[in-house]
## 1
Amino acid sequence: MQRKIVLVNQHSGYLFLDVVNAFAKEYDQVVLMAGKVVTMDDPLDPKVTVQKIFPYNRASTFKRFMSWIVCVVNIWWLLLTKYRQHDLLLSSNPPVASTLIPLLFRRRTSLLLYDVYPDGLVATGFVGVKNPIFKVWAWFNKCAYRKVDRIITLTDGMATTIQQYCPKEKITVVPAWSNVPTVEHSATKEENPFVEAYGLQNKWIVMYSGNFGKGYHLEPLVKVAENFRGYPDIVFILVGEGWQKELLSSRIESHGLSNCKILPYQPSAFFLHSLQACHVGVVSLTESLENVAIPSKTYNLLAVGHPIFCIGSVTSALARFLEKHEVGMTCDPTDTESMTRFIERLYVDKEYYRRLSDNALIVAKSHTKHRARDILELVAAGAQNRP
């Protein structure tokens, strides 16, 4: 009997594509339903069929929700008419798919939850726990999660949140992983295309790369840059786009900070080079992620041997992770004095920097693409155990 599976992710990045490729090695037919596929160095296995679905639209809250709803209808119709005999692995993108689709079909279904909804709406202040949207969505979760074979998530905090909807025996934690090879921190410093493109030769680089959205604590990083005016070789680089860009640019300009630069998102060919170029990687946590998620960029920074500087809650899942493995430090967004001391210590104390860097490489070796294989095995086992 042929094994067929449909994997669904409205906006598929490297973590999900690694999972898809793992299934392609074992299953007879593999279909990826995605509105957008973002590949890095590893292309999709040619065996995989890509089925386009309605793309994610983050232009506004209304458009975001509408793109979720339209996408779920799109998925439902395709499963009803074109992929009637396939097992399912549904991600939480779009969020309503992992709640509604299991209720609409009787077939082997597993969930891969990167986010937990409706709890994420509460964390961002969009609704309260007494709001009818929260109550109805939570009730549907309990009905849907009762029907699925396996729920896979990324952190213990997320697993704890999911337990309100189903027995903990159904839930397995598989941590995220890096998309880059584990390499020594200084492996390509001398002739790095990213360094050459932006004139960063002989600079000691503190870098944030990602979303400049409202919930990210990036202004404190610019404030810290002000404290390093007397260090001509230390620079602060912010790579990305988003709502805060104009605010950050204005502060940099008004304070005459020649040691702080904003760069646009880099082409994929520069991704690994930009990671290797910096000396300290910055991660900012939004309040909605503090207790449930560890951003995937964390693992990429570890893979190139960088100490990590987190701006966010000192009691977050990431803060505990950094402290446990001694690979970095978390500072409250208001504590720019501690931020300054930490960066200065990394710069001055070479032995301390090397210890954190070596620890990062050790941790990275346990967070590689073999985790995608773990997800494959969990889904396959769940399918075999279903009567």
## 2
Amino acid sequence: MKYNSIVTIAIITFQSKNIINNCISSIPKNYKVLIIENSNSKILKKKLEDKFNNVYCYLNKNNGFGQAANIAIKKIKTKYIFFINPDVTLRKNTIKILVNTAKSFKDKFSILLPSEKREYSNKIREIKEIGASSMFVNKKEIIKINGFDENFFLYYEDTDLSIRFSKINSKIYLVPFAKVFHLGGKSHDNNYNFEIELSRGWHLMWSLFYFKKKHYGKTHAYISTIPLFFRYLFKYILLILISKNKSRKYKFRFMGLLNAYFNKPSWYRPKC
């Protein structure tokens, strides 16, 4: 079997120039890699395409992970797409194991997840929620549900995907003996750590409310998030004179919720 003819690697990047090389280097050179570069960096595109013969970098405006992932889904022609974060490196034979597993299931799955940690059982098992740094996607199945919900800029898009797959009875499986290493929170340049942290706080809260409203109704969304809103507002006010940076973190969290309450889109973008 020519594994590289049926799977393409997709990586969504934003200010990832200091970490992406390690990620790409862990991918066997005979696999095509599509990078969707959300910071629209022509310099990064040139460097990556010059250095790696198997890489094509598509420049994109930063509209979030889901929108970029949908671009990848449209562009990639192979039957499987292996999405990995820029701060992930693959272990030996990870892709082959996932492809063989897909074949053993006769493509009756939506997503296969490799393991990021030590597993006490190598038994493949069904799981209900994604929440991972990498996912091996059956393209036919993700097209059935029209891909990612692009209203999410960041956070909860994978949980939303899990619920929508469950509604069409399309299964998600963890494959424990397919291994990846995930650094975690290192997918961007360290120079932008604080700005990215502010953005994450804003979008975490916006996406939480939107997710709850979408799947459980507006009343549930308000009731379950109002305590968070007042907690973060109180901490913001309390910390104004003590620590400006800590104060701003809480401000961005309650502002994310406030914008969601007023039905505004997930408009905030990190200033990078």
## 3
Amino acid sequence: MQTGAEIRPYRPDIDGLRSVAILAVLLAHGGFSPFAGGDTALGAFFVASGYLLTQALVRSRGRVSIVEFYDRRARRMLPTLIAATAATLGAGAVLMSASEVSGLARAALASMALVSNVASLGDPGAGPLLHTWSLSMAGQIFLLMPLVVALFARVGRRAVVPLVAVATVVSFGLGVADAPATGAVHVHHRVWQFGVGALVALVPFAPPRRKLAGILAGLGMVAVVVPVFASDPEVSRSGLGALPTVLGSALVIWANRRQTAASSLLGAPPVVFLGVISYSLYVWHWPLLVFARRLWGDLDPIGTLGWLAATVLVATLSWYFVEQPLRYPTGPIRSRLAMLAASLAGVASIAALAAVVAADGIVAVRPGVSIAYAGEGPHACPAACESR
């Protein structure tokens, strides 16, 4: 049986698209005002994930191993998330007050259980892990993906396309109708962004000739980039506010099946590398920023550039020593059973560490660093990111 890992062709331009998205997010969260709408670019992650996972499904004609699918998702998401959560708990035990550490511990447990988007937003002290609610939403979508696999294998592409289209439209309507201005956290408000990417893979329209494909890819990039500079940060990222980015990302992915100027630019090695480490960048950037602001207050441009450099360094090390070795079954953990055991052990370790740092005897001996940054409220990191 062929598997998704064996049949999926590599698209460096998609990693390049992720690079654009993560740079926009980092610059927005870092406080660079021209990039205030940077969270809009996060829709590109959902579109790319929807496309890549569905493309593997299409190429395998539904014969994708469910066990392998979960194994690959666990290898992709959990090692980096566990390492970053453990480091955040350790830093929080030193830098946060007793009541905040208790909230941070609950947020850590919620992130491990993939329920951060519904369980920890209002928790005092959850700030350093606030961004994990987007990872929880991605995880919830991945948990549902085998249903699509089973349906595809049973009824085929032609029957699946209208079902995915209807689900996409319904989810978009819910995102428009129900989402608060700062961005919904409910998974059904964001499924449509994943669904748009899935439809690009499912609908068998070949891209136009090279010249027109280049124009369309360029227009798609404009649709992704312009909201980063022009979007109000208070605009909903789950409904209409995300529409240009989502449609633009889909257009780029579709048109770049041909060789275009956009695919060449997005496929440049330095651009691709940032996309390759984009998951590690996202997971690490927010705790580093929150603790930097607690220690030094609002960062000036030099301080913010220092945070950016530190984030890239930490993410690169995390990608090289944590993410890459464990991502493939050729690494130190080869069997799926061993990966399951390692994942459960990692989650249990986070639970134990959370209990330790939240214990009164540990946190009562130090007052914690005073809050120097007031932007750690429930919507400090308002948009979702897919853990690809």
## 4
Amino acid sequence: MIDSAQGYVQYNNTFIPQVWSTNLILSLYDATVLAYIANTDYEGEIKNQGDEVIIRQRPTININDYEKGGTLVHQRPEASTISLLIDKAKYFDFVLDNIDEHQTDIQLMSEFSDDASEQMKIEIDTDVLQTIYALPHASNQGIAAGVESGDIDLGAEGDPVELTKENILDTIIDSGTVLDEQNCPESDRFCIIPPWASGMIKKSDLKDASMTGDGTSALRSGRLGMIDRFTLYNSNNLYKYLDSSTYCWNIMCGHKMALTFAAQMTEMDTLKAESTFGKIVRGLNVYGFQVVKPEALATIYASKGTYT
């Protein structure tokens, strides 16, 4: 209500009606990266929570020297297995009153469902990222990383890598070397960094984000561009840990073959509410994930150094 001069009678309650906007303020969502860092090779094989997919790994065949007249040594290959258990589930459930639905000029059910979908993706993305940081191969993490070199510092609890604009590129490239030593494919590599690290990269020797080789805006995927052979993604969902008095982040690098993910919306209902005049909208998403190739995953344990 606009203030009036002294002695002026306000008539706003009688003549000036409330006007409801036909637009909703858009929500701001965390970028989700799971779709870009995991394979979904086994997703078609699940139906319900509790389902288990047994994944067979290709065995390694021995190569032997041959001598004329020598006796051949037969190998009986054994394929080890990994279980992908669909043991996690998340749901949403909201009620939309019939009066609200009929009297508003906004498609509330569609708006609410869209938000539920985005929030579901963020919850699952966070669950995955804050679990897999501890699951790379032992030689792909720590202060003595590198299955061949054993002298690459990717940080460890109590001794994180302090990232600055001067060393952040070198550290990311070092993680690439760690993957190279594991014979990890060069295509489809990813690196997920927190927003402050993205800022450091833009202030580093690259000067601006366009020099990463990707002019596409980040949007909700968080995609920033490429450094070395990594596609960089920006995310607020990485695991953050208070190490003594310093916050540290687990920056994830790897290849899509490392992580498999499977999910299915097993329930999506619109029901008549029993306790009120309205509709219940609810959805159940069951999912599971597993690091099936730890050699193709690396963790940089980093603290935030000088930002300027």
